[in-house]
Amino acid sequence: MKVSIIMGSVSDYDVMSGAEQILSSFGVEFEKRVISAHRTPEFMYEYMKGARDRGVGVVIAGAGGAAHLAGVAAGLTTLPVIAVPIETKALGGLDSLLSMVQMPSGIPVATVAINGSKNAAILATEILALFNEDLAQKLHDFRKEQADKVLNSKI
Ligand code: RP5
What is the pLDDT of residues 27-55, one digit of tens each? Predict the structure, then answer.
């Protein structure tokens, strides 16, 4: 199974490339696409409706100002959708965060921190690892690396 990384604009890529780096480090296959819920609504529909048949298991959706991207994606599929609120110039990303995290009951979107694309990718990997022992082992090793770093810290 692969992960789909979608973002509302090319301007989101600086942040969303963090998800790409993490997925690559775990050897998780992914597809990526700029897609806009309001500028390309017909394509958005087609893309999300075809996601499961393309082998997508989890969707990561990053957006700033028009942060409805993740909610619209979640409305079009029953695949798990993880939202990444992108920092905005006007309101620092709090607008994106609140819009994504406050999804009405019934259509969930799992929202990470503002610009938290790396955690979104780790979470996506954890979901795929439910059915993949090799990935589960890689996640275990990754946790151990972090623990070792703390335990070996010198001050
Ligand atoms: C949102 O508006 C995008 O996700 C982006 O974060 C923000 C600004 O988009 P651009 O004006 O850079 O295309 O739709």
Answer: 999 999 999 999 999 999 999 999 999 99
Burial 22-48 (b: 16+ CB within 10 A, else e): bbeebebebebeebbbeeeeeebeebb
- Taking the C-alpha atoms of residue 129 and residue 139, their distance in angstroms, rounded to an integer, is 8
The protein residue whose alpha carbon is closest to atom 10 in ligand 1 is: 9
CA of 72 to the centre of ligand 1 (A): 15
Ligand 1 lining (C-beta closer than 6 Å): 8-9, 11-12, 36, 63-66, 86
Pairing status of strand 81-85 against strand 2-7: unpaired
Residue from 38, 31, 45 nearest 9 by CA: 38
Tell me how far CA of residue 127 lies from CA of 35, 50, 120, in angstroms: 23, 20, 11
Tell how far the Cα of 7 is from the centroid of ligand 1, in angstroms: 9
Residue with CA closest to ligand 1 atom 5:
64
The DSSP string of 65-115 is SSTTHHHHHHHT-SS-EEEEEPP-TTTTTHHHHHHHHTPPTTS--EE--TT
pTM over 0.90: yes
